[in-house]
Specification:
Layout (H helix, E strand, L loop, with lengths): L1 H13 L6 H15 L5 H7 L10 H10 L5 H18 L2
Length: 92
């Protein structure tokens, strides 16, 4: 479930789906520009199910979590529900 949420919030932040080579390449570049972290477009293609998926590494999960404003994947798992609930309850 957490990985599905991470995929969803990443695509929502981007404003487009990761569904082919070009969008995977674009996400890889955006992550590097925003965070300075390198992640292969092939890794992203596997994570988003563009090609045959494998269990994502901690590096992949941490990178996408940092991209979405968390300190790490652990931070994302522990705090996403609190952060999103806070936004819903206190949004003007």
């Amino acid at each position: 479930m957490n990985k599905f949420i991470l995929k969803t919030i990443t695509q929502k932040k981007l404003g487009f789906k990761i569904d082919d080579y070009n969008t995977s390449k674009k996400l890889s570049e955006i992550i590097y520009i925003e965070s300075g972290i390198e992640i292969s477009y092939n890794t992203l293609r596997r994570f988003f199910g563009v090609v045959k998926s494998v269990k994502p590494s901690n590096y992949t999960l941490n990178t996408l979590s940092v991209f979405n404003g968390f300190k790490s994947y652990n931070d994302f798992v522990m705090n996403f529900h609190l952060k999103s609930r806070w936004k819903e309850e206190f949004q003007i």
